[in-house]
Amino acid sequence: MRAGMVADDGADHGNGCFDEEWPTELDNELIDEKERTPFAVDAFRYGSIPGCSAYFLTHFHFDHYGGLTKGWSHGPIYCTRLTARLLTLCLSVNSSYIHPLDLNTEYIIEGVKVTLLEALHCPGAALIHFILPTGLCYLHTGDFRASKCMQSYYLLLNHKVNVLYLDTTYCNPKYKFPSKEDVLSYVVRVTKGFLKRQPKTLVVVGTYSIGKECVYLAISKALGKSVCSSFGISPTGWTYSESVGKQLDQIRPISKGNVTIYGVPYSEHSSFTELKEFVKFLKPDKIIPTVNVGNPATRDKMHSYFQEWLKG
Ligand SMILES: [Zn+2]
Fold this sequence. Notes:
Blueprint: H1 22-30, E1 39-41, E2 54-56, H2 62-65, E3 77-80, H3 81-91, E4 98-101, E5 106-109, E6 112-118, E7 126-131, E8 137-140, H4 154-158, E9 163-166, H5 180-197, E10 202-205, H6 213-223, E11 230-235, E12 254-256, E13 259-264, H7 272-282, E14 286-289, H8 296-311
Parallel strand pairs: 1-2, 2-3, 3-4, 8-9, 9-14, 10-11, 11-13
Antiparallel strand pairs: 5-6, 6-7, 7-8, 12-13
Zinc ion binds next to loops.
Domain DNA repair metallo-beta-lactamase: 221-295
Pfam family, one: DRMBL
Protein name: DNA repair metallo-beta-lactamase domain-containing protein
């Protein structure tokens, strides 16, 4: 990969701070000249990158597509079909630059085998799997929620990943939140209970951009209708608290007047445990974290987790 581009999703999801300095030097140290490709992933904020002839977009969240506008003319953009549609519909990117790719299909781009895999993040999000002519294999997770089902992805089972660019949003042992399924059934249960007591309730689910649809889809499916006091669900991994842990029933809603809000730990990113299981399964030679990398101490801590996981 080219230095400084691939690992950069431009976001420290944790504190909203982006350290402009780290990627170039860090990647230069990690990636040999012969291991580089003329590719950039989620690096649109840099505009035209010298030597880069193919730009990849993992998914349609601003911290990844930032810099991409309707005036884009720096080179072809590769992404999933759904993300491609969003680029046209929402950003009016010139379609002659957009190259939609199907999931689970191998494409040869600049001599490199490229396959997009389901990332279980937001609609259209993909992991990007690259095999260089030398056989060297990279996996860029973009943003993802690691799941056991990924351990049956053919490519991941049958091709050793040498370098893993990993979404480390929750790479801290304090983030041991429950599975999406458990949170969804909890939300449905709590909503049904609330509606029983106060049938005329407007249920509001907080979302940012695309991604948390599953929460309100689960509610409307369970109730059989789209559903006035107000009752709100705020789904994010950041509402996770250690005291609640995996005990969803200990979540205490916040009420003011006739508005009640439940913050639930519904995350589109991997929990610490899921990250660990994913890394232990892949056993890559090298891991490059892509989130929360601005702080050297945090970065060192993450690398110590990686070393521990890869030992076993
Ligand atoms: Zn995202």
